[in-house]
Amino acid sequence: MLPRRLLQPLHRLLACLSLLGFCAWAQAVQPVTIGVLSHRGDEATLNHWTKTADYLSRALPDYHFEIEPLDFDEVDEAVGRGTVDFILTNPAIYVNLEVRHRVSRIATMKNRWGEEAYNIFGGVIFARAERFDLNSLEDLKGGTFAAVDETSLGGFMMALREFKESGINPYRDFIELSFAGTHDKVVMAVREGRVDAGTVRTDILEHMAEEGRIRLNEFRILNQQHYADFPMQHSTRLYPEWPFSKVQHTSNTLARQVSVALAEMPGDAPAALAGNYAGWTIPLDYQPVHDLLLELLLPPYQHQRQFTLLDVLQRYWAWLGGGLILLLFLGGMTTWVWRLNRALSRAKQRLEAQHALILDSVAEGIYGVDTSGNATFVNRAMEAITGWKAGELIGRNQHQLLHHTRADGTSHPGEECPVYLTFTDSVPRYVEDDIFWCKDGRSIPVEYSSNPIRDRHGRVTGAVVVFRDITERKRAAEEARQRQIELAHVARLSTMGEMASGIAHELNQPLSAISNYTRGSIRMLQSDREGLREQLIEVMERVASQAERAGEIIRQLRRFIRKEEPERKRVDLNHLIRELVGFLQPELRRAGVVLRLQLSEGMPRLWAHEIQLEQVLLNLTRNAIEAMQERPADGRILLIRTAYNEGRVELVVEDSGHGIDESMREKIFEPFVTTKEQGMGLGLSISRGIIEAHGGRLLLDDTSGRGTRLRIVLPIEQEGAL
Amino acid sequence: MSGKSTVFIVDDDEAVRDSLSWLMQSVGLSTETFPSADAFLQGFGEDRPGCLLLDIRMPGISGLELQSLLRERGFRLPLVVISGHADVPMAVRALKAGAFDFIEKPFNDQLLLDTVQRAIEHDRQERESHARLDVWRRRLDTLTPREREVLQLVVGGASNKQISSELGVSMKTVEAHRARVMDKLQADSLSELVRMTLTVAHK
Asked: Which of A200, A352, A444, B12 is the most exposed place for a label (fewest CB within 10 A)?
């Protein structure tokens, strides 16, 4: 090896020197180096191929071709570095170079045997002729074997493929597998008996025999194959001959010129004779070589199956390391992003839960409506109140479900729906008294507000409705009204109790008179006096009149204690006052009170509970009468006045009594507050309750200590209100 | 003595007033009616015999007030009070303050008439005793101081002898004074003289 390694730079130096030397006449001549696999030694190689280079130099005058012999392990480096322009090597190496360094074949060599040319070749496995024990490849197991080189196609690989197909692993099954380095050495090793058998490419034995160095009958061929058009001894399949290839950097123009020059070389050209070949053909298909290398898992297919983890680590540790770091980084990032995502998702869930919690913890029903009138969300209170489940409401028209029909049974058109109107005119609405229909077909009284929902641009995207079931409130209001009636009734009974003795006295008067008249008459009749008849007639008239008087008192009494009517009706306030005054007349007389009535005629009628209103009047007038008891007999004046003004009726009850202390003014309407010795303190409180239930007000006027003036203001309400 | 007894009826209820009047007239009593205590006080100028029939509960001056006003003016007209059931306590007060009687409504006409008659009779007797007392008082006023002394001693139960020694005069003088006192007082007997003297002394 050493001499060739020293030789190679020498060649290059010579090439450079010659280049320098000839630069005067060969200005345009460029050196072209043809690398040649030196499988039989450098000297043989140069002998073989220099003439071919010369041939090409002559054919292409612009170039000077030179041969550079390359050892098996130098080929790859030379091509990889680009120190050669063309490469002539065996097909296996060519296939590797093709894959690794993108060389491309431009011609396939034709081999010469005798007068014939062959562009295919194979391998031959042989032993010495006297080894009768070695007849098949199997017989070689346990023996020693020589081959040219592990990378030699004809000198090893072809045989190896055949061994493998026969189930033999030369590395394992042979006691010794040696590589001699050249074909000739293998032949000599077998011949000299140093190994049991060996393998070389076809034509080696024939050439050596021709040269006289061996005799063919000294050897026996194992696994001999027969191919009709191929005369030489061989033990393997046949493969295309050596290709002449251009290296990647070599220009296509030069490659084409070389290709043409080679193809035009005659079979008997000095170059061909020297190279012991028979010219060149267009490049053959090297697929069989690929198949062989693939089957043997040899370069470039060595990694097809045997690529172990260790190989990977060794070969790609930097990539793997980088990849691993990248993977770790990506993993870290992914974890971080995942955690961040999870935290966000939790925060979102928490917010949503909080949102839902708030929505679901309010007692009011809340739902959203989009501009098509469909429900978009619903809270739990809504589900509880209406019986509709969220799933049954969301996406459906809320108007059709909830308030398709009014309380009076008439249809409620969708375009009049306050919720619909809210998102058409963007004005919030509040509806005090409406009904919603529940899932079970009941209707419930509700109050609700409907507010437009706007997006960021202020466009209305729907409405949110908040509603409340007011069943309880309505019932409470009804109960309060009922209590008011009951309280008024109790007050009435109480008043009647207080008035009972007065009424009894009042009834006694005509009865006493009747009694006196009749008794007197009886006595008169017994005495039988003159002119008695006329006197008696007159007295009997008075008796009848007194009986009628008693009847009138009883009539009034019955009217007063009649069953109370729960409903309101049209009430003529002036008429009511006159009737009451008639009833109070005896009391007024006994109390020495002068009554003044100033009633405004032509007032509209009130829509009221007549009995309750009468009770208020009774309370106020009786208070007034009592308040004047301390006054001198000529200073007891009770004024009752009515007036109508701007849809309101005003009633004033004024007395000339002691008035109300400043300290009491604020309190007199409170229950159980009284200025009287025998009073419950309920009269004014109940009266105010009644008046307020009628939508009116009961006020105490400031009279600066001169008597008391109470003022009632009542609206003239439409029938059906309240 | 001035004339016939009259039932004065005061009641704010005209029918009651009129019917009471009719009832009184049916038994031959003369009546005068007034609608109020005020009206009565104005119309009742001098002390006249009879009785006052009054509803205790009246507007204006009440029955009780009228009673005390009449007393202040020295009128001794007996008062018959008519009261409703509820006014009984008021009637009792009136009775304590010197009313003659009270009648609770509704009343029995006979009871009312009897009461009124009794009141009139009471008034008549009162007026008679008052008249007799006046006569006696006038007669007593005619006595000389010495005659009064003698009368005192006689009424005290002293004998003529004791009187003569007490006064330091003769028996004859005592007897003359006694005769003159009996004469001036128009007494028929010693017992009458004593009753007359004691009655006047206690009124």
From this structure: A352
In chain A, which residues have their Cβ closer than 8 Å to the Cβ of B15?
509-510, 513, 542, 545-546, 549
Q: Judge whether A34 lies within some domain.
A: yes
The whole domain housing A671 covers 567-722
Cα–Cα distance measured from residue A582 to residue A611, given in angstroms and rounded to the nearest whole number: 16
Asked if B19 contacts A514 with a C-beta cutoff of 8 angstroms, the reply is: yes
Asked whether residue A499 is domain-assigned, the answer is: yes
Instruction: List pLDDT tens digits, range A254-285.
Output: 888 888 888 888 888 888 888 888 889 888 88
Contact B78, B100 (CB under 8 A): yes
Residues A460 and A372 in one domain: yes
Mean of per-residue pLDDT scores for chain A? 83
| Distance in Å, alpha carbon of B111 to nearest chain A alpha carbon | 12
Domain identity same for A78 and A194: no
CATH number of this structure's domain B142-202: 1.10.10.10
Residues A203 and A253 in one domain: no
At A1, is the pLDDT very low, low, confident or very high (cuts 50, 70, 90)? very low
Please answer yes or no on whether A513 and B27 come within 8 Å at the CB atom: no
A20 and A109 housed in the same domain: yes
Asked whether this chain's domains B6-131 and B142-202 adopt the same fold, the reply is no
Q: Which residue of A has its CA nearest to B112?
A: A516
Pairing label, strands B50-55, B6-10:
parallel
Q: What percent of chain A has pLDDT over 90?
A: 13
Q: How far is B58 from chain A, CA to nearest CA, in Å?
A: 6
From CA B32, how far away is CA B40, in angstroms rounded?
Answer: 9
Domain count, chain A: 5
pTM of the model: 0.43
Amino acid symbol at B177: H
- List chain B domain ranges: 6-131, 142-202
B6-131: what fold? Rossmann fold (3.40.50)
The DSSP annotation for B3-61 comes to S--EEEEE-S-HHHHHHHHHHHHHTT-EEEEESSHHHHHHH--S--SEEEEEESS-SSS
**Which residues of chain A are at the B interface, by a Cβ-Cβ cutoff of 8 Å?**
501, 504-505, 508-517, 519-524, 527, 539, 542, 545-546, 549, 589-592, 633
Q: Of A564, A591, A621, which residue constitutes the final position of a domain?
A: A564
Strands A239-240 and A120-121: antiparallel
Residue-level pLDDT at A18: 52
User: Nearest-CA distance from A571 to chain B in Å?
Assistant: 33
pLDDT tens-digit readout, A142-193? 899 999 988 788 889 899 999 988 888 888 889 899 998 888 899 999 999 8
A483-502 residue pLDDT tens = 777 777 777 777 777 777 67
Q: Which pLDDT belongs to residue A126? A: 93
Angle at A717 between CA A715 and CA A718, to 5 degrees: 165
H runs (alpha helix) in chain B: 14-26, 37-43, 63-72, 88-96, 109-141, 145-155, 160-167, 171-185, 190-202
Q: Are residues A288 and A151 in the same domain?
A: no
DSSP letter at B113 equals H
Cα gap A415→A397, rounded to integer Å: 13
pLDDT of residue B53: 92
Name the token pair of A47. Answer: 């002998």
CB distance A35 to A84 below 8 Å: yes
Task: Give me the CATH number covering residue A208.
Answer: 3.40.190.10
Which of B23, B60, B105 shows the shortest C-beta gap to A520?
Answer: B23
Among the candidates A236, A270, A288, a domain finishes at A236
Residue ranges of chain B with pLDDT lower than 70?
Answer: 1-3, 59-60, 85-86, 203
Please indicate, yes or no, whether residues A75 and A137 belong to a single structural domain of this protein: no
| Residues of A with Cβ-Cβ distance to B54 under 8 angstroms | none
Query: Looking at the predicted complex, does its ipTM rise above 0.85?
Result: no
Tokens of A574: 């002036």
